[in-house]
Amino acid sequence: MMQNNIKVIIITGSIGTGKSTAVNIIKNLGYKVLDSDKIVHDGYNKGEDLYHKVVERFGQEILNEDKSINRQELGKIVFNDDESLMELNKIVHIYVAEKLMQGVEECKDEVIFLDIPLILEKLKQEKKYALKYDEIWLIYVSPETQVMRLRQRAIMENKNPEDVLNIINKQIPIDEKAAMSDEVIDNEGTVEELELKIKQLLKIKLGR
Fold first, then answer.
1. Domains in the chain, ordered, with CATH?
2. For 115-140, how does the pLDDT look when each residue is reduced to its tens digit (9 = 90+)?
3. CA-CA distance, 34 to 38, in Å (whole number)?
4. In this predicted model, what pLDDT tens digit does every residue of 93-117 receive, in sequence order?
5. Do residues 161 and 113 lie in contact, with contact meaning Cβ atoms separated by under 8 Å?
6. Under a CB-based contact definition with an 8 Å cutoff, are residues 57 and 94 in contact?
7. pLDDT at position 83
8. Radius of gyration over alpha carbons of the chain, in Å?
9. What is the DSSP string of the chain?
């Protein structure tokens, strides 16, 4: 556990596995969850440390007239240059790790969750950037269910299913992630069943 005796649990998954649903359940049960994606989103706001570091590295040309970061312009730079992309990722990962650990230190609860969608894809980097935690919990569905759910979601959102499914190929296969995680929470059933499994796991881990 961390120095302040708080248990730090990373909650993760892959696209189409229901991680966001699990996170909402955990929040509704009264537990604090720090959202890594929100930290990045907020960090790009004017005046934030991440904003200044990104502008310092990539220049004024990535800014809109109101001095906000133009993410499309930034994207053009980094996705056409592997070295620039690596530098941006490093800046972002260090910033996020620091913010997450700051949130952990400030938390007075017995346990805190960190919502990090791609932690297993970036595990070595995150450990290098001083991200400390006790366990990783994976929200799991079979590869077949993952594909089925993504197809259904794409159709509902009027998107090309093949474009959405291509995202899977950029992530570690879900069965490999299961082998890398401390706890695997099966989400093949209903939301109610998922909530019950999370409650049971929390009872085992926390004794209540």
1. 1-31+110-208 (3.40.50.300), 37-108 (3.40.50.300)
2. 999 899 887 666 666 788 999 999 99
3. 8
4. 999 999 999 999 999 999 999 999 9
5. no
6. no
7. 92
8. 18
9. --TT--EEEEEE--TTS-HHHHHHHHHHTT-EEEEHHHHHHHHTSTTSHHHHHHHHHH-GGGB-TTS-B-HHHHHHHHTT-HHHHHHHHHHHHHHHHHHHHHHHHH--SSEEEEE-TTTTTTHHHHHHTT---SEEEEEE--HHHHHHHHHHHHHHTT--HHHHHHHHHTS--HHHHHHH-SEEEE-SS-HHHHHHHHHHHHHHHH--
- What is the pTM for the complete model shown? 0.88
Of the candidates 3, 25, 1, 6, the residue with the CA atom closest to the CA atom of residue 197 = 25
CA 162, CA 5: separation in Å to the nearest integer?
A: 46
- The predicted model gives 157-171 an average pLDDT of 84
Task: State both tokens at 66.
Answer: 């109101």
